Amino acid sequence: MPLRPLPIAALLAALAGAGAGAPVRHAGEWRTQTGGAAPRLSCYPSDQTLDQAYLLRVASRLPGASCKAASLSTAGPLTSFSIACTVGGKAMTASGTVTDTGPDAYVSRTRTHGGALKMLAGLAVPFPDTDTTTVGRRLGPCRPGDHVVN
Asked: Residue 80: which residues within 8 A CB-CB, separation 6 or more?
């Protein structure tokens, strides 16, 4: 099975534009699909505004990641972002857009470059560069048994 980095787009799953200002991922059950992968249902228990602090916090969840810089700008339904991290001792950058496509719906396009997965023997396996597209839509309130994302 080929190694793939956790795309930043997946970490930004379920972010929808709020119309004016920074995008907000509203609380509830979200259906997201990245590329040709199977759709995923997740419960987000609270609203979250997409700002630089949030972007750095979720990007730092990558195993071995240390993220130090991010930029974020919103104009109408389009939010552009970029982030620079060290992952597995290697520099990694990610940039992309999140486009509000309707009430509680979005499309995210992300490009990542660099980074590595540290192996037990101290070796680092480089991540391939990736281009991903994630589509998400809020379905309604969370349901019992949903995968909860904090």
From this structure: 71, 72, 73, 74, 95, 96, 97
